[in-house]
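tool_call: predict_structure(chain=1)
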Amino acid sequence: MPSVLIVDDLLSIHEMLDAVIQPTGFATAFATDGEKALTRYKAEKFDLVLADIDMKPMDGITLLRQIKLVDPMAVVIIMTAYASTESAIQALKFGAFDYLQKPFRVDELIATLRRGLELRQFQAARAAASPAPASPQAEAADRLVGDSPANRKLVAHIRKLAAARNPVLLQGESGTGKTTVAEILHAAGEAPAAPFIPIDCALGTEADLREGLLGHNGAGGEWVRQAKGGTLLLQNIQSLALPLQIELVSVLRNTAQSFRLICTTTVDLESLVEEGRFHDELFYRVAALPVVLPPLRERTEDIPALIKFFTAHTHNPFFDTSLVEFTDDARAVMAAYHWPGNLTELQQVIAKICSTGDVRVVTSNQFPLRLQELNTWPTLTDYLAGQQQQYFDRVLRACKGDKARAAQVLGVDVAKLG
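tool_result:
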């Protein structure tokens, strides 16, 4: 029998909840404060926790955070008596499954408990069926190419999230690989045949998004139904109109446990929340596990490995593109360029050169004009002849005044650039 730990400092609440919950098939247990509840959860590991937010000495938010430290997959539902949902949204920020605002209806309470139990059972079944498979970790390392500190940190983060079911928010500039990360997470957490439904909120009309995401009566539209048992990827979620954001909250409350939700954004959603341009509760529902993808200009030491990866994955009918080599000056120009399109732009540049060219040694003269403008540096001979500062100055100009990037290209301390 599934178990629920009820935490409230009022015994009358215990009696009321026991009377309505037990007949629905849940075993109930009780604690009168957060400290006692935490002790009992550590000893017994309940399926669900239903906790009031206003308790002393340990309130519901603190209890939630402490339980999540003990059991990251814990399903905690918060009860709040406040007229405002501000405290409930704070609970979502720290990983609560959902919240109930007092006074709540019995049918709403039972429906929330059952949805929470579905999630708990799903997590247990997946853990039993595939305990920490190695292949998704290998895929993360294979597809997220590079050995820079920024990329190593990203790969480690993705590996930790592979088994999690909570919503993931991928943040980063266009072209940083957010869809690739979503695909890795999907492959790590679902069966091979599980559906992967990508929806770009920046491309669909408001009518199409309403029909596909919302449906009727908060049950979810066709895209939500298609994602059941798999992953729903909402790309550029910042483009979703505010009225749709508000309605999407209701859909997620009713359906989120049936699929894995991954969202992407190119902007700082939290700042949009502060400006009133993004719904606060939706933010905390989709941003349970935030991941920031670094731009290519912050990991230029990965460019040689990326060149090798992209050339090997480019087709040319006349020769093996994996044999293509880039000269030192070509690599230097690529390291100094600011790559506004990030990995996507780098891949396109390499693909165009390798798939349409007829040479195996690539110089900077074969680059698009926007990169060739950087090819104005003095030669290494000039540098060795004593024109060190001139060399530094011209590299700095090529890097558009970015001293940190110029120092990285040159392999020197930024203080040497003046």
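agent: Residues 106-129 form the longest helix (24 residues). Proceeding to next step.
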